[in-house]
C-alpha cells in the first residue's frame, strides 16, 4: 500500500475535477457538489481519452414515460471528452451504459487539507 | 475491458489520415474575398444557413472537448495546436484536410455566385495557411457544385496545386451522380484529383430530421449509401474509369450489405441502366473507398468478417475525424490486424486512392 499527497483540498472547487499523478499513474481527482473527493485512472476505457478534459455532469433518470426528462446526480457523472461515455463517480466509476465496466478507482483521504490518494 | 482491448497497444505505424477537419471562421475568409462578397459578410453578417435542429448532446458541441485551442479558439482553427495534438502526437505521415462544412459552398441553397466566391476564398485560405505550412497536410478543393461550369473553373484554378488531392462534395440533399454534375468528374480525372464525399447535414429520415440526434447519427450511413448507389447506377465510373471516390465519415460496416444488395438489383434490373456494364460490387471494389471512422467497437474476427464480405482488403482507409467528438484514435480504435492488412488500412489504401500523394518511402522505425 502506498499513498501520496496529490493536491491541496482547495485546489478543486466542489463540482470540479483535476488531473494529477499517483506515482506514474495519471489520475483524475473529482470533487462532487457535496464536497467529497474521488480518484480514478485518468484514461477512458473506450479509446483512452484523458477523462479530466471531459465534464462533470448529471444523468437523465431512466423512465417508462416517453418524453420525460428528470435530471439527476448533477456533478456526479464524469463524461468523456471524446465520445461521451459516462462514469458514475459516486458508484465506483461504473460506466452508465455498461455497469459491469468500471474505471480503476483509488481510495482518497483528506489529511490536513491535503488530498491523499492511496494505491 | 472492451472487446478489442486484447489488441492494445498497436505499434507506431505509417498513418494516412483521410479525415482531418481544419476550420475557418468567416473573419478568416474575408481577406480572401472581393466586394461585394466581402461586404455581405462584414456589413450584413452573412453566414450560411444551418438547419440541424439538435443541440449537440456531447461535452463540447461537435468537437473533442480537449481540442479547444490554447487561446480558447474553436477546435481545428490553429495549425500549431493541430500539429501538436494530432500530427506529431500520432506520428502522421499525411493528413487529408476536409474542411469543417461551414461554409459548405455546395450545400448552399441558391445564390451560387456567393457559393462560388466562398469556395475560391476557402481554397486560397486553405493553401496559404495549411497546405503550404505543413508538408504532411494535403487538401480538398472546395467548389460550388450546384453550378458545374463555375465549379470546373475553380478546379482548373487550384486543382493543379501539388497539395490538392481531392474535390470535396457534401452529402446533403443532392445525389451527385446525375449527368448534370459529370463535368466535375471529368475535371477531377484531368487533374488527378479524387472525389471525397463527406456528410454535411443530410436529412436522413425520409427527407426529414428525426426526432433525436442519436437516430440521425446512427443512420448517417444511409445517406452515404444513397450517394454510392447513385454514382454507380448513373454510370459515373463507367464514364470516368480513372475516378476514385472516397466516402468519408460514414464508416464501412454498411458496405458489404450495399454491395450485395446492388449486385442483386443489377441482376434483376440492369436493363434500366444499360450504361452500367459491370456488377456494382466490382465497380465499387475498383473505385469506391470507405473511411473507418466512426468505427464500431469490434474484435479482429468481426473486422475480418466485414472485409471478407466486401471481398477486398483495399476498400477501407483509416480516418480520425480530428478534432470532432467522435474522433478515432489511431492506436485504439481498430482491433489488431495482420500486418499486411494493417498497412493497407492505415496508409496504403489511401495512398492508392489519392494519385497525387507521394509514393511510399522507406520504412517506419
Ligand atoms: S475515448 Fe472515452 S468515450 Fe471514447
Automatic annotation (TrEMBL), chain B:
GO cellular-component term (any): cytoplasm
Record carries keyword Lyase: yes
Keyword field: Hydrolase, Lyase
Lineage: superkingdom: Bacteria
GO biological process annotation, one example: secondary metabolic process
One family name in Pfam for this protein: Amidohydro_2
PANTHER family xref list: 2-AMINO-3-CARBOXYLMUCONATE-6-SEMIALDEHYDE DECARBOXYLASE (PTHR21240), ISO-OROTATE DECARBOXYLASE (EUROFUNG) (PTHR21240:SF28)
The protein's name in its UniProt record: Amidohydrolase
Species this chain originates from: Lentibacillus salicampi
Amino acid at each position: 500500500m502506498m499513498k501520496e499527497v496529490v493536491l491541496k483540498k482547495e485546489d478543486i472547487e466542489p463540482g470540479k475535477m483535476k488531473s494529477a499523478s499517483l506515482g506514474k499513474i495519471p489520475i483524475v481527482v473529482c470533487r462532487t457538489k457535496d464536497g467529497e473527493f474521488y480518484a480514478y485512472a485518468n484514461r477512458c476505457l473506450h479509446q483512452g481519452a484523458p477523462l479530466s478534459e471531459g465534464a462533470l455532469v448529471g444523468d437523465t433518470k431512466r423512465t417508462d414515460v416517453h418524453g420525460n426528462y428528470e435530471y439527476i446526480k448533477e456533478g456526479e457523472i464524469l463524461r468523456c471528452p471524446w465520445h461521451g461515455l459516462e462514469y458514475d463517480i459516486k458508484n465506483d466509476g461504473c460506466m452508465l451504459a455498461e455497469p459491469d465496466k468500471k474505471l480503476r478507482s483509488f481510495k482518497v483521504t483528506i489529511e490536513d487539507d491535503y488530498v491523499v490518494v492511496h494505491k | 475491458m472492451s472487446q478489442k482491448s486484447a489488441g492494445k497497444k498497436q505499434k507506431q505505424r505509417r498513418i494516412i489520415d483521410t479525415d482531418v477537419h481544419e476550420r475557418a471562421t468567416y473573419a478568416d475568409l474575408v481577406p480572401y474575398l472581393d466586394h461585394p462578397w466581402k461586404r455581405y459578410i462584414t456589413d450584413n453578417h452573412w453566414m450560411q444557413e444551418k438547419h440541424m435542429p439538435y443541440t449537440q448532446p456531447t461535452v463540447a458541441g461537435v468537437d473533442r472537448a480537449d481540442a479547444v485551442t490554447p487561446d480558447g479558439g474553436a477546435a481545428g482553427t490553429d495549425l500549431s495546436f493541430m500539429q501538436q495534438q494530432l500530427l506529431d502526437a500520432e506520428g502522421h505521415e499525411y493528413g487529408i484536410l476536409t474542411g469543417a462544412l461551414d461554409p459548405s459552398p455546395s450545400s448552399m441553397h441558391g445564390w451560387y455566385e456567393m457559393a462560388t466566391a466562398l469556395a475560391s476564398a476557402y481554397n486560397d485560405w486553405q493553401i496559404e495557411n495549411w497546405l503550404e505550412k505543413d508538408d504532411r497536410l494535403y487538401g480538398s478543393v472546395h467548389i460550388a457544385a450546384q453550378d458545374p461550369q463555375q465549379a470546373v473553373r475553380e478546379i482548373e484554378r487550384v486543382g493543379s496545386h501539388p497539395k490538392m488531392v481531392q474535390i470535396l462534395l457534401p452529402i446533403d440533399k443532392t445525389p451527385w451522380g446525375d449527368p448534370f454534375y459529370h463535368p466535375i468528374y471529368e475535371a477531377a480525372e484531368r487533374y488527378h484529383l479524387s472525389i471525397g464525399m463527406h456528410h454535411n447535414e443530410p436529412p436522413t429520415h425520409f427527407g426529414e430530421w428525426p426526432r433525436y440526434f442519436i437516430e440521425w447519427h446512427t443512420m448517417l450511413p444511409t445517406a452515404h449509401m444513397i450517394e454510392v448507389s447513385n454514382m454507380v447506377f448513373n454510370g459515373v465510373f463507367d464514364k470516368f474509369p480513372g475516378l476514385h471516390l472516397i466516402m468519408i465519415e460514414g464508416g464501412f460496416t454498411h458496405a458489404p450489405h450495399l454491395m450485395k444488395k446492388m449486385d442483386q438489383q443489377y441482376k434483376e434490373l440492369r436493363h434500366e441502366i444499360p450504361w452500367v456494364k459491370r456488377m456494382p460490387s466490382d465497380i465499387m471494389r475498383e473505385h469506391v473507398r470507405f473511411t473507418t471512422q466512426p468505427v464500431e467497437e469490434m474484435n479482429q474476427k468481426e473486422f475480418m468478417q466485414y472485409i471478407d464480405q466486401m471481398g477486398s482488403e483495399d476498400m477501407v482507409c483509416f480516418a480520425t475525424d480530428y478534432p470532432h467528438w467522435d474522433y478515432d484514435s489511431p492506436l485504439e480504435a481498430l482491433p489488431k490486424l495482420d500486418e499486411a492488412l494493417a498497412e493497407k488500412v492505415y496508409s496504403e489504401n489511401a495512398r492508392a486512392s489519392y494519385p497525387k500523394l507521394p509514393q511510399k518511402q522507406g520504412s517506419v522505425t
